[in-house]
Design a protein that fits this description.
HD/PDEase_dom; 210 residues; HD_domain
Length: 210
């Protein structure tokens, strides 16, 4: 069993307790996208990329009961200290953090970040947004906060219980311009257009125009 296969087996149990917006199928989609991007970046370390993808949500504050899940799983894998550190640093660079993200300084960070963000765009991104919103009791839209697109800090962003449509404006529609790889930018542009069309349709239906 490869290290990636071992890690995959360990993380499945963690993601099984998350809602469908961040379940193991999300991880599998991100992994497939990351591998596709990595094929266009010959210097990328695929092992670090794959492990970072598999582990990037296990300690997500939205779900995790402990911040040690990521470290606990890494400790069970046959990795050098340097490899463990690379995986941790790659994971740390993935999160949007309300616009206060860490700088992606390696190609592995850029690939994992782009792959994860691509899964927040397009038809899948729309589905995930509403699944997450439904699981956490969010409104579809809220006219009082729909134009709130920025926050003064990461903490303020995480503390805000935004409506789903607000989330499109405060994060999802910004992702296209934050892509870091050529392949990521290409796919993001296509998926972004679909999301814009969806929001236009949603608005028209809500207003009784369609």
């Amino acid at each position: 069993m490869t290290t990636t296969e071992q890690c995959s087996k360990l993380v499945k149990e963690v993601y099984a307790s998350f809602d469908a917006s961040h379940d193991f199928e999300h991880i599998q989609r991100v992994l497939a996208t990351a591998r596709a991007i990595a094929e266009t970046e010959p210097t990328a370390n695929e092992k670090i990329i794959e492990l970072a993808v598999l582990l990037h949500d296990v300690s997500d504050a939205k779900y995790a009961t402990s911040k040690d899940i990521e470290a606990t799983i890494l400790a069970q894998l046959l990795l050098s200290d340097d490899e463990q550190q690379q995986v941790k640093e790659t994971i740390a660079a993935v999160s949007y953090r309300g616009g206060y993200e860490l700088e992606a300084t390696t190609i592995e960070m850029k690939i994992v970040r782009d792959a994860d963000r691509l899964d927040a765009l397009g038809a899948i991104g729309i589905a995930r947004a509403f699944i997450f919103g439904g699981a956490h009791g969010s409104l579809i839209y809220n006219d009082d906060d729909e134009e709130t697109h920025t926050y003064e800090s990461e903490e303020a962003y995480r503390a805000k219980d935004s409506a789903v449509v607000t989330h499109f404006h405060e994060k999802l529609l910004k992702l296209k311009d934050l892509m870091t790889t050529a392949y990521g930018k290409k796919l993001a542009s296509q998926r972004h257009k679909f999301m814009v069309q969806f929001l236009q349709q949603l608005s028209a239906e809500r207003e009784g125009k369609i």
